[in-house]
């Protein structure tokens, strides 16, 4: 396009300012410190979850071992109790009674061995249950931390989104009625040039690329009518000429 009302060009700078504010809010939303903290917590929780599952599995296995050891000891005790009752009754031949005595001795040794095994497994279970309690406590603490950070993130989101909605409404009002061709060019340049499609010319400098125009380009721009849409020769952005300050 070649022309657009000078007033529309100047109002385009207000639209650009609001668009820049929207971009800043979007960047702030993507860059909240809570998001980085949540990634850290998720990584820690993943590690702790693995440790938790491993510890829970070990405890479950050891509880089964303890139950088996207790059952083995109880089986030997029951057998010894029956043998002792038969021996105490005095019924049976001397050979039978001698065999019972011998078996009771063997059962006593067997019971002692099994009780040692039971004690060793119980000690291991106690140690693993202690470790499981610690891992569970650490996991619960991290979950609680994550909930707090999520609440902070959501509060920040609400604040940013509310401001973005206000800026969006203001932007719609400011852009209303602007020259359609000017807006189309601006939107295209904004997409190509990192969100900045229009910039003011202050003195000799384009505020978009912050470079000073050479005298020939500056004279060429100043010679154009005020409704003429001009572009920065350096960055290609719409260059909005502002009224010259009154000389005192």
What do you see in this structure?
The protein has about 250 residues and is mostly helical. It has 2 domains: about 5-25 and about 180-240, no CATH class; about 30-160, Helix Hairpins. It has helices spanning about 5-30, 35-90, 95-175, 180-190, 215-225, and strands spanning about 200, 205, 230, 240. It has a 4-stranded mixed beta sheet with strand order 2-1-4-3. Helix 1 runs antiparallel to helix 3 and helix 2 (about 35-90) packs antiparallel against helix 3 (about 95-175). The mean pLDDT is about 90.
Structure summarized in a few sentences:
This protein is mainly alpha-helical and 248 residues long. The chain has two domains: 6-26 and 179-241, no CATH class; 32-162, Helix Hairpins (Orthogonal Bundle), CATH 1.10.287.1700. The chain contains five helices and four strands, in the order ααααββαββ.
């Amino acid at each position: 396009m070649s022309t657009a009302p000078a007033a529309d060009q100047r109002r385009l700078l207000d639209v650009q300012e609001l668009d820049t504010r929207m971009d800043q809010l979007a960047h702030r939303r993507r860059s909240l410190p809570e998001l980085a903290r949540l990634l850290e917590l998720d990584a820690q929780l993943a590690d702790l979850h693995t440790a938790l599952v491993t510890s829970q599995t070990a405890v479950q296995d050891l509880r089964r071992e303890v139950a088996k050891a207790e059952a083995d000891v109880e089986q030997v005790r029951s057998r010894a109790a029956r043998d002792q009752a038969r021996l105490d009754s005095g019924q049976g031949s001397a050979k039978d009674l001698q065999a019972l005595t011998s078996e009771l001795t063997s059962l006593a040794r067997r019971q002692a061995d099994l009780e040692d095994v039971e004690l060793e497994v119980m000690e291991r279970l106690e140690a693993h249950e202690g470790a499981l309690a610690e891992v569970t406590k650490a996991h619960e603490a991290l979950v609680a931390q994550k909930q707090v950070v999520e609440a902070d993130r959501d509060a920040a989101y609400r604040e940013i989104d509310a401001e973005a909605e206000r800026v969006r409404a203001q932007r719609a009002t400011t852009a209303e009625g602007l020259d359609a061709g000017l807006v189309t060019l601006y939107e295209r340049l904004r997409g190509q040039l990192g969100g900045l499609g229009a910039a003011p010319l202050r003195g000799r400098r384009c505020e978009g690329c912050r470079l000073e125009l050479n005298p020939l380009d500056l004279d060429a721009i100043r010679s154009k009518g005020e409704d003429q849409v001009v572009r920065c020769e350096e960055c290609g952005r719409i260059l909005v000429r502002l009224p010259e300050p009154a000389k005192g």
